[in-house]
Design goal:
251 residues; alpha+beta; 10-stranded antiparallel sheet; 4-stranded antiparallel sheet; 3 helices; 16 strands
Length: 251
């Protein structure tokens, strides 16, 4: 009787250990998803894509920061903010957009690559149970920025993030051609993006020949100031680190 009892206890303990292993492996992330590699990614790919897997990967490789596992997409903004990641309602390039209404019930996250009018241009993945109707792996897509009702996650700020102190130059007037704006600040580097907000509330991300880094402390922005009113600009480096907004009135 004692021997049988001992064997039963061993079997129960063995089953418990195996069950724990199954649970642990069920929550282990995937290093590969579709044709992409993401070492240490805490999220599952499920074979054909997952929005949280992709956004974690893009943030990790762009920001150089490994976020914790924030669970379902809809919870990312609140949990990220608790973990020290700023969250803003205003869209920004190289941020993570979070929606609780899109992709219900789990929500949806995307990497915002650029701002485009009232939309954001994103890269993302989609998870769907069969039958799948959306492209499963990574793709570019455009969304209204208002779709991301939980806001936009920024990387944790570093001490060497870009800073903008002032604009120098003549009074600007609305015109249908590019004008050069000279800004002074600090920690300007190659490959900078500039997020611009127009007086009508539309946005654009300026890049390439539109942005010239003169030195670590000055930068020239070429932009068509097509309407009068208050414009504002924000400078974003290749790590997603950004300055505050600077305002400019156009007559």
């Amino acid at each position: 009787m004692k021997r049988l009892l001992h064997h039963s206890i061993v079997r129960i303990a063995t089953v418990a250990i195996l069950s724990f292993g199954l649970v642990a492996s069920a929550y282990a992330g995937d290093n590969v998803c579709c044709s992409h590699q993401s070492t240490g990614n805490p999220y599952r790919c499920y074979g054909q894509g997952n929005c949280t897997w992709w956004s974690w990967k893009r943030a990790n490789e762009t920001w150089g920061q490994s976020m914790p596992n924030f669970g379902n997409a809809r919870d990312w903004a609140s949990l990220a903010q608790s973990a020290g990641y700023p969250v803003e309602n205003e869209p920004g390039s190289l941020t993570i957009g979070v929606s609780s209404s899109y992709g219900r019930p789990h929500g949806h996250v995307v990497m915002v690559e650029r701002l485009d009018g009232s939309n954001v241009s994103t890269t993302e993945m989609n998870y769907q149970r069969p039958p799948r109707t959306l492209p499963p792996c990574d793709r570019w897509k455009s969304h209204p920025h208002t779709r991301f009702n939980r806001g936009f996650i920024l990387p944790q700020p570093t001490w060497d993030r870009p800073a903008v102190y002032f604009y120098t130059g003549p009074v600007r007037y609305a015109a249908p051609y590019d004008q050069s704006l000279l800004f002074f600040g600090d920690f300007f580097t190659g490959g900078m993006l500039v997020d611009a907000r127009f007086p009508n509330g539309q946005y654009a991300t300026l890049s390439g020949s539109q942005v010239s880094v003169n030195s670590s402390r000055s930068i020239t922005v070429n932009v068509t100031l097509g309407s009068s009113g208050w414009w504002k600009f924000r400078f974003v480096d290749t790590r997603g680190q950004r300055s505050g907004w600077i305002w400019l009135y156009v007559n």
